[in-house]
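[scheduler] slot 2 assigned
[scheduler] job type: sequence-to-structure, two independent chains
[scheduler] chain ordering preserved from manifest
[runner] begin chain α
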Amino acid sequence: MDITPIYDLRTRLRAAMIAGTNLLSEDFRLKRAIEAFAPLEAASPVFAKIGQLSRSLLDAQTADREGALLDAITLADAVLCTQGAVSADMPGEQHEIKKLEINSCAKVVTNAPYSVVKSLQEALTTSGSGHYSYVTETHEHSPELFADYRIKAAMVQALGSSYPELADTVEKWLKEEDSSLLPLLKNNFDPKGKKEMIRRIHVMEAIAPKESKDFLIGQLEQAEKEVRQAIIFTLRNDGGSEELLWQLAASEKGNCKKAAYHALACRESEQTEENFRSMYQKDPASAVRFLKHTYTEWSARLLAEKIEEMVKPFETDSGYFLSKERFELLQSLLLAAAGKTGKEITDALSTVISLEDRLNYPFENRKKKWETHIIMLHGFAYGYRGTNTEYVTLSEMLANIINHTLLRTADAETARLAIRAYEEKRSGKGAWEDYFGNAALGHLLLDEDVSEWMSKQPLTPKIAVLSRYSSSSRLQLSLYEAWKNISWSESRREFVMQDVDVNAEILDGYRINFVNPVGRDMTLAPAEIIIQCENERLDTLLAEYISQENNVYRDRLEAYFYKRALSVNNNLAYVRVLKRIGCKRCEGLAVQHFSHCDGSVSIWSLRNYEATELPGDRQQRYEEMKRVYELVLKGKIKLYGARDGKEAFLEYLEQLKQE
């Protein structure tokens, strides 16, 4: 049966809604559509009802034309919803029948006004000032809106935003979704596209690596440039693609070839290890570069073996030196060891630490140390950083490597290495202070009595005076560097260590994020010992230990930070923490801050400090700003504009009082 007439009739009925019912009697197109529909009325009672309602619209005696029009459209739509069909018997060329991907989101739409949804969609999909802040603020205050499938579709579109911050932020949010987002990510995917498609690939890999594998491999045939590179790199976690990766490593060029090797380095197989060992024999520098961002067992064994080979001669031959090229290779091997675990790599690092004095100047031509020491690799230097004044020692480099390994793995063997290195260096010779922070972290992870151990170290000035060592400031810096990535996680409800490994050779830097539990309450003894140091850098660690469920520590921290805010010149960092933890007072804070400002103070800075930074209620803030004004009158605080500034300050105080 040909049901084309009902489609035509529905089209005319919808047009009538736009034109208005007053013009129905003159709508000859509607009359023609009703006449064409008449033969179908005998086929079904429901068709007859549609015809009856439609003809009543042309009757001038019909009292409720609006109701009849709505009934006719509703009934026509309902009938057409039942008439859909799928058939393989299609005219013309043959088509492959594919399974329809269905969205399985728990919530398709949210109970939000259309105006809100529309505004958020526009902010995500169009350019304009203020869009980024609007999206982020909405996500913070109304996160439920982002469960709406319409908003998710707009978020996928936002991955191609011309405003990079918005695109990067949306990518981060989408990585927290599940596989139900895949249909949106696959829709209109362009294998020849640019940054937007790369972000889509990153999201696919994060939310559904197995489900998206076949789709991404299918895109390789047409994929180009950065998109091709990104797809190749995703194959590193797929056990069934190793043969394909070796084929790509042999056939690809440039960055795509590098992506294939970086992906292969992540594979845990004997064949891969054998191939990389062969590569090391031919081109050691390239092989090590690919091993830096992998955490396979074989890569740790290979690196350990090569490190031992390079440093062992220093144990027995006092006249042994390295060429500059070999020295650079040793640095690369050590840097690639960060994050690797196992007895072999731990023993290799232990050997290097024991030979630290010999390895500080391992060159053939030691008369030109300042020339050969100008070496930087991925942010770390072993020697001078381009000048003769900024020197980074081998012990600092080794401490950094051990710290990254502890943060990324929480490995017990590495923790024992950190403790052993500190104790051996302290009892003998060497830069023992550089190893202190990792030793403390090692005690922390091994669930030992870290508080008792730390209390015996010359960490605070008081203890340093009683000790034969007086390097408390260096120990404090070492502790900060080792512990700065420990914080309280509200989502996990525990203290965690975090680190990130950025592979700068893959696109604009592929990030691997590491999060490991500390397994200890940092607000107890460790925090109390840090408090005794009264060090601004270490105070930033205390601020990261704040948890909403620990009222005792919050009160203890409030008292300590308030005291510190009244003793430092620029107390803005302390004031912000006080406000974050819910401090209810502010007496003396603004006075301390503005009394120690260099030069004159602007009215804007006064207003901003009071309105956005200062804790306490309105009345308390008013009283504190009055005290600041009194110092202005006495000339102890200088304002921009002198006389005009005082008048503006007084006017501001009156406004604050009346609020």
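[runner] end chain α
[runner] begin chain β
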Amino acid sequence: MITVTDVRLSYGERTLFKDVNLKFTPGNCYGIIGANGAGKSTFLKILSGEVEHDKGEISITTGQRMAVLMQDHFAFEEYSVLDTVIMGYPKLYNVQKEREAVYAKEDFSDADGIRSAELEAEFGELGGYEAEAQSSRLLSGLGLDVADHGKAMSELDETKKVRVLLAQALFGNPDILLLDEPTNGLDLDSISWLEEFLIDFPNTVIVVSHDRHFLNSVCTHIVDIDFGKITLYSGNYDFWYQMSQILQKQAKDQQKKNEEKARELKEFIQRFASNASKSRQATSRKKVLEKLDLENVTVTSRKFPYVGFKLDRDIGNNVLRVENLSFSNADEKDILRDFSLTVNKGDKIAFVGQEHQAKSALFDIITGTQKQAAGDFSWGQTISFSYFPKENSRFFDSGISLTDWLRQYSPDQDETYVRSFLGRMLFSGDEALKPVNVLSGGEKVRCMLAKMMLSGANVLIFDEPTNHLDLESITALNNGLCAFPGVILFNSHDHEFVNSTSNRIIEILPGSASLIDRMMQFDDYLLDDPVKELRAKAYHHAEKLQI
């Protein structure tokens, strides 16, 4: 258990939070939410001891082990993947390494024999004999190929390193588990596996996440950071959201009542202040007026951008036809092979599954960003598209201001018009004048969305648009796409975003040539028995080939 008592943290004159009193108990999962900059990650670091708080106390039950999801993806380059996972349980890892060192001695003495017996006993008690098997199960569950388990960390790309570090945090059944954005870099299958793992996890979990479905699936409580206060609510994210809407309405209603009451009191005071028989009542009402809180009710620090896409031209019956596309990567591995697809009017297609390179390659090819090796595609005559690529840094490599950057894509060159669009995306005042090459990941995404909103395109293509966005921005984008009357092709790791936006699911299966194509929402797709059978056969076959 973790007990937080009167904790306060300030940076200069800014108080991040104060008077925090919370208890985190075993068997519960706590989701920490709040606007960007509210201090979610900082609060986790306070709990782990990485950041020192100004005042108060953090106490952890004696003897309990805490595991933290590491954020430095390159901290274990010299270690093997399996060793990196086992290092999540430092005591076991140290015993394992000492045990190996003792047995490696050429001049094995009687003292070494005694010590090895002690180490064997401790190794067994700590679960050492099952450590590699548990590590492999965690890595496989998180989508890391079996062939990667024996590699060095330096041989893995960053997306795989993220999975290894998550397995490290989960390893060895820690008493307290702190996870900061654990679903980042995971595909939908891996996120689903992680959800099941945490639902069954018997100890304390505290997690920061922007994934609404994930928070709804695993959380028993929500910890909301807003205006320097940290408030604990029972229930998952949806329950918190409904409760917050009720509380906001109550606050606004109370504010309205206070203003009406104040108006009545002022009228009485003005009318009877000079009336001798009513002066006592006027004085009494003046005291009541002084006690009324007439400050504007600050409901939340959360800011929602406005995301709305309008098409300049209606879509005809012919949207997109893809015929026998093939594409290989730099290693000459087939990413797409004889891939064919017809996109119809009204389609909102979510491309799902583990073939991430294939999805990105398809989007790049049909938008002209990449050239296919074979095959062809054709857009309908009425079609105009706008593309959000996964890697967007090339759009922001200059030092021009945000206003000048967006003006490049605006049909109306008037500065007021351009800045109004930036304001919708939460760039107001001087924010609209800063150079684009210093923008954060989330700010770049919001700029790309503004660019797409100005395009008037009737087909929108998104390659993982929810990366780097906070909950508020994801919700705004989700609502904007649900209301969009055109065609959408997209790929995302956000379950709720996929399920609520799409009406058609396409999964490119391992082997690059076959796919599953269903007119249904994502939740229905996951529960469809024929789909389950097809997926199981495809991934089992791919695993056998890999082994």
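[runner] end chain β
[qc] chain β: The chain has a mean pLDDT of 88.
[scheduler] slot 2 released
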